[in-house]
Amino acid sequence: MNRNILSLDFYGAEITAALAAVDEETDTLRIRHALRRRCRAFSGAFVRDMQGAQEELSKIFAEVSEYVTFNPSVVVGLRGNFLSFKRASGFKSVDSRNRIIGEREIDEATRNSIPSNLSETLEVVDVLPQSYTIDGNTGIKNPKGMSGFTLEVETFLSCAMVTHLNNLNNVLSSCECNDYQVLPSSVAMAETLLNADEKQAGALLLDLGETSASALMYHKGALVDGWELGWGMNTLTEAVADLLQNDTETAREILREYEPGSDDIMDEVMEDAAKKLLTDVKKELLQSLLYLKYPSSHLVLCGAGADKTLLKTAKKVFGARKARIASFENLIADCPADHPAYSGALALIRHALDRERSQMGVAKAKEPGLLDGLLSKLGLSELF
What residues make up the domain containing 212? Predict the structure, then answer.
């Protein structure tokens, strides 16, 4: 059976979107349409101009409607420095018959991991269980059906500013888009683009956009830390302008025409500029004790800035043993969708499907709030 899913990834001052037909029997995605649009009404998923945002999204929905005969499911990706990440843990005493752990116990332990003292300015938009502990025995991946007196879960929470989410919700509602899910784009990419071996060995996913960047880190298979940065490839453009003593617009034109290996001087300039950009990213990561504690042996690069020049420099800067540019499997495209800029849009579709299959769901951005939608998807709303 096929179904259509539309993803919207708010990427700095750009929106990328992908419309996929999903073959649920073969787990194959067929990308029917993909687009990139400059949109100054948004900065990431932060709305700067309500009317302008509504007009831009209406145009995208109108364009997509030419490829489907009915409204697709919609997944909206959150990015930007109004998104934050937290590690948490939840506990549940197992009081079911024969002390067997079922979905109710797993769900309640997961719900209990959400801090009761979370700031009222924040909304939990995604809860990602990492590992479980039964009666003090750690490292359990799936406790369903196991027996125990106590269940603990380690989770990775994604939180967003309530006011920004409300503004985004109002824009989507004004476009008559009322049935959609929200996910943090960076988490979707990390979960989708890194393989199990990389996560287990220790890996860093680095997503480089034009005006934003994000990084997520794994250790022994678990997602342990994440960063959303308010700058991206624009830093590289500025570095090139400084090195060439040009203005940023001239530097931007030079970068558009630049081909690695065609000019020795430009190759050196690009290497120096890339080193500056990536060193700035590393400085942000070095503020985390977890980054210092768990060095990553694998580096995966994605986003609009992902290319071989940056990959080579990133491997040196971050001291990675192995490095690669992210790619998708089980993907058929009827349109050009292999540019790294589409990483987020494609990952949102894949991750939303994976969450549905694992019965963990994603939050729906509508009143009475994202967390209530998330609890409903998790099957927890009847508990509170």
Answer: 193-325
